[in-house]
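Worked Example 4.2. Consider the chain below.
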Amino acid sequence: MIVVAGPPGGGKSTLFPASEFGVDYFNADDVAATLNGGSYLNISPETRRQVNRQFELFIDEHIRDGKSFAIETTLRTVITFEQAQRARAKGFFLVMYYVTVQSAREAMKRVAIRADAGGHSAPKKFLTHTYRCSMGNLPIAISQFDRVFVFDNSAFNARPQAVIRGIDGGIDIMGTPTPLWVQHVVEAVARRLNKSPFAPLAAYKLYATEPTLRAIQKLPLRIRVAAFAAIRRLERNPHANERQIGSLYFSAYGAQYRVAYRVDESRNSVTLQLIERLHPLFGS
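Applying the procedure from the previous section yields the following structure tokens:
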């Protein structure tokens, strides 16, 4: 399941056309324009409703039949996550390409330029609402999709910048300097991964000794997020070493870290016992 997402005006359709992934695809705007005589302007609400029904049917049929597909969405609502959960249950690998700009104001400028060229538009209030909802849902996507690739397309007439890579619920920050909105997304992902004190795991409850928890909480935000991403891998296979006591390793910002843990079958749990910085990866 491939999802091309982002607020209107971000540039997702231009950068990642759903038609170019080599699988069945559905672009609701293009279908609506076809039904509207080839025009993206003044598409009626009834036509939109008709296209939305076709869109949902397309997704339902492909999930049911286990056929790969690509779609485009603003990610304004959570329906994409509900569809992704059903797809995962059928064995789909979930991938998202998310393209955005630094502010709702910039997105509206892009939409206005597109409308002047004959493309589709929307009221400013709706565009602002969609931008905020879409950006608010991005941390959920990073937490739930297998892979999420996020691009900042704010610079006009320039290549978009790859800023975030989500892997198995974790997050890597790419490139410098880091835009402010990216920092906000990272903090939101960290909050989702840091509940009581960790995100709940599917098979095993996850605990940490007090010294280990304090050590993790003292890490810089970027490294803490990388630590949580590594820890979440225990959800998939806590017995990777076929021992009750094991270690996992992760690299972040030029250094390698080790997390020691113990598996307790009687409690169906994993307890983190130690986190330590091993050595720099580059230089001294």
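The longest strand covers residues 269-280. The chain has two domains: 2-193, 205-280. Compare this with Example 4.1 before moving on.
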